[in-house]
Amino acid sequence: MRPPYLLLDIDGVLIPFPDADGSTPGTHARHDVVPTGRSADDPVTIWLNPAHGPMLMDVIRTGLVTPAWCTSWRQDATTLIGPLLDLPPLPHVDLPRPNITTSHPNGYLWKRDHVDAWLGDARAVWIDDDFTDLDHVWATERTARGMETLLIQPDPRVGLHAEHLTEVRTWMERLPVPTGAPAASSGNEAA
Ligand SMILES: [Mg+2]
After folding, report:
1. How far apart are the CA of 41 and the centre of ligand 1, in A?
2. pLDDT class of 176 with cuts at 50, 70, 90
3. Which of 53, 64, 110, 191 could, after both became Cys, cross-link 85 (CB 3.0–4.6 A)?
């Protein structure tokens, strides 16, 4: 069985929303980036926490999850955002550009149907700030069908915290051992 995916959102997770007065967290450094399709003289200002790169790498290096971007930054996540956090090139979920005015056009996160198809029967831990109750129901139903799915939902005004990644590690270390794979604890089990 393949390692589960670790799906990573950016806006509201790595780039928290500014406060009402426009201020951004002191932990985050400002950068100007030029997303695909935008003119070089019209950059977008973002803010990133340099500690997030090492925190994410600690999880990625375990090899227990396969990381992938899942964000409306699409390919720019790999080419623009990842390098600012010293992250290696990661695959991304190839999300479309729907003509929608809300992130929950059907009562749940617009990305979800695409993620569902992209995952197939893979297990996943998905970090995004914008899930609804219906997304949590979806995750519970996937898990019940043997496709363990964990949703982690940071506060978009705070973004990713170390505790979220602790939750990822706890979850991936407790996943059932796939049938046929050698169980690490098999030698200790009583007959
Ligand atoms: Mg988001």
Report:
1. 26
2. confident
3. 53
Ligand 1 geometric centre to CA of 179 (Å): 35
Q: What does pTM read for this prediction?
A: 0.90
Q: What is the CATH number of the domain that holds 137?
A: 3.40.50
Output the pLDDT for position 96: 85
Q: Measured in angstroms, how far is the CA atom of residue 109 from the centroid of ligand 1?
A: 10
How far does residue 64's CA lie from ligand 1's centre (Å)? 24
Residue 26 within any structural domain of the chain: no
Could you tell me the distance, in angstroms and rounded to a whole number, from the CA of residue 23 to the centre of ligand 1? Answer: 18
Angle among Cα 92, 97, 100 to the nearest 5 degrees reads 130
For residue 158, is it within any domain?
yes
Structural domain range at position 155? 5-14+50-178
| Å from CA of 9 to ligand 1 middle | 6
> For 37-89, what is each residue's pLDDT tens digit?
999 999 999 999 999 999 999 999 999 999 999 999 999 999 999 999 999 99
